[in-house]
């Protein structure tokens, strides 16, 4: 195999992951170093960094290394994302037609949300939520909707440190206790909302999208100027978002009852 000792560390890390992916069983570090023509010290450093990020796991008793849960999540996210986008786009277009405001779809990426679709409404301003943008999940309506549908231990693992609570404009929960309280309100209401936490002057209403297993695979939301809607219009906005989330969940094979 071509040596990678003189290429950037990112390429070395990818080479480690590709090597582990080609083997059915975990490998000793010495084998990884030999196969990639890497110094042992560099190999152990790369493995430590990848382990901390969850991309590799260390089997201590066997002294071997294998792919970690983050590598699985990345692969499964790719396999979900293409059909999810294809199925979701007409639902979001209909949501934009119904509400006349911009709609978007996100997936959870660690404790962030990754925007995978934005359907911009005509004559509405551009938003920060363009495709490919990542934002702290606890600040967004779509992210809060996903988090509210996750098991409590998973939420606790995602937000295990105060540094995980990023603040953009002074809004949003800043501790796990505050986040738990916010998620409890989301579950009671059946939808999530935020006001000015992402962009001053704008609000969003969001709901979770579930797959055939009941897992929240995505969140969808509509964003609008928060001083532009009266109470009746807000209720219509919420109803449209919930209906779209239910429609998309059904298209993904979900057959259970969605929280309202």
TrEMBL record:
GO terms for molecular function: DNA binding; DNA-binding transcription factor activity. This is IclR family transcriptional regulator. Keywords: DNA-binding, Transcription, Transcription regulation. Residues 7-69 form the HTH iclR-type domain. One of its GO terms (biological process) is negative regulation of DNA-templated transcription. It comes from the Bacteria. Residues 70-254 form the IclR-ED domain. Transmembrane segments: none annotated.
């Amino acid at each position: 195999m071509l040596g990678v000792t003189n290429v950037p560390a990112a390429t070395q890390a990818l080479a480690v992951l590709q090597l582990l992916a080609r083997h059915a069983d975990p490998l000793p570090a010495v084998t990884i170093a030999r196969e990639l023509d890497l110094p042992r010290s560099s190999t152990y450093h790369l493995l430590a960094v990848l382990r901390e990020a969850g991309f590799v796991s260390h089997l201590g008793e066997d002294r071997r290394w294998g792919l970690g849960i983050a590598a699985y999540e990345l692969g499964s996210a790719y396999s979900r994302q293409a059909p999810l986008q294809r199925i979701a786009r007409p639902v979001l277009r209909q949501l934009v037609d119904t509400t006349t405001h911009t709609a978007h779809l996100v997936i959870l990426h660690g404790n962030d949300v990754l925007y995978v679709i934005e359907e911009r409404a005509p004559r509405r301003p551009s938003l920060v939520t363009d495709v490919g943008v990542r934002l702290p999940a606890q600040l967004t309506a779509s992210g809060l909707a996903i988090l509210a549908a996750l098991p409590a231990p998973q939420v606790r693992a995602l937000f295990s440190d105060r540094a995980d609570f990023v603040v953009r404009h002074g809004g949003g929960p800043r501790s796990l206790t505050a986040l738990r309280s916010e998620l409890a309100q989301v579950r009671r209401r059946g939808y999530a909302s935020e006001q000015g936490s992402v962009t001053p002057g704008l609000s969003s209403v969001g709901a979770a999208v579930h797959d055939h297993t009941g897992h929240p695979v995505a969140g969808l939301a509509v964003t609008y100027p928060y001083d532009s809607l009266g109470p009746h219009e807000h209720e219509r906005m919420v109803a449209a978002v919930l209906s779209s989330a239910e429609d998309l969940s059904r298209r993904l094979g979900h057959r259970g009852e969605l929280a309202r």
